[in-house]
Amino acid sequence: INAEYMGTMETGDVLQQLQRTEKSIAEKLAALTEEDISTVVAGLHTHAQLTQQLSICAEESDTDEERQNILSEVRALHSTHERLSSELRRKRLTLNQQQKTALGLGANSNSALAPGDASATQGAARAVLNTTQEITQGFRRIRTVIVEEADRSALTMNVLHESTRTLQQTLHRHQSLGAKVTGASQVTKRLQNQVDSDRWKVTAALCFFVLVVLYVCWRRLSFVTGPVSWALSSGESAV
After folding, report:
1. What is the pLDDT of residues 204-236, one digit of tens each?
2. HSE of 72, CA atoms in CB hemisphere, 13 A
3. With the CA atoms of 221, 227, 228 and 230 taken in that order, what torsion angle do they form, in degrees rounded to the nearest 10?
4. How many CB atoms lie within 10 A of CB 156?
5. Cβ-based neighbour number of residue 218 at 10 Å
6. Do 136 and 88 meet the contact criterion of CB atoms below 8 Å apart?
7. Greatest Cα-to-Cα distance within the chain, rounded to the nearest angstrom
8. What confidence score (pLDDT) does residue 106 get?
9. Sign of the CA dihedral running 69, 71, 76, 81
């Protein structure tokens, strides 16, 4: 599968491709031949790549529940990959034993073989050895990819847990600050009410003081102007 195309695959597409790959590998392993070994190794490599892409989809998921489900599927795929790899190793050992038996039987009759036939037999043995080495290297690469992906998944989970804990601590701080702000608002409201009450009291006291002063002035003026008015009225009467 093209790596660029694989990077654009969704989770459902990756799972469907994994199912098809596993089915193809199982069919090849059921009747494994020397020609099918390279095909099975390529299928296992594709299986590992798809598993890695599924882990990337888990990191890009929106919810923790979806991420956990995908990671559980990734762990199950790792187990399936190990099982298929073990089955391939077992089948390969069986084929090697059969080839060794056939080569052993051929060695017993080497005296009757022509030099060209002996060379062909040795070439076939070297081809089998080269194929075995390629398969071993492929298994090592696949195992390295699986181990790296498992470590990456574990690191991602640790980062997610740390982020969740940080968010919870931030939420608790915000709730505490909200309670303090609410209390401060209530205190400010009480102080404002007290200021308004004091303002009305001062205004009423000032008005009462002004009224008292006016009343006193009015009484004083009445006491002074009373005799003067009486004297003027008496003088007019005498004239």
Report:
1. 999 999 999 998 888 888 766 655 556 556 655
2. 6
3. 130
4. 15
5. 10
6. no
7. 186
8. 54
9. positive
Phi, psi (deg, nearest 5) at residue 98: -65, -40
More confident site: 202 or 98:
202
CA 210 to chain centre: 75
Token pair of 91 as six digits: 């089948």
Length of the chain: 239
Per the structure block, which two tokens stand in for 183? 């209390």
The distance of Cα 103 from the centroid of its chain, to the nearest Å, equals: 56
Q: State yes or no: pLDDT of 100 exceeds 60.
A: yes
- What token pair was written down for 199? 């303002």
Of 184 and 239, more confident: 184
Q: Are 103 and 45 in contact (CB under 8 A)?
A: no
DSSP secondary structure of the chain: --HHHHHT--HHHHHHHHHHHHHHHHHHHHT--GGGHHHHHHHHHHHHHHHHHHHHHHHT-SSHHHHHHHHHHHHHHHHHHHHHHHHHHHHHHHHHHHHHHHHHHHHHTGGGS-HHHHHHHHHHHHHHHHHHHHHHHHHHHHHHHHHHHHHHHHHHHHHHHHHHHHHHHHHHHHHHHHHHHHHHHHHHHHHHHHHHHHHHHHHHHHHHHHHHHHHHHHHHHHHHHHHHHHHHHHHHHH-
pLDDT of residue 120: 60
pLDDT at 124: 66
pLDDT of residue 207: 94
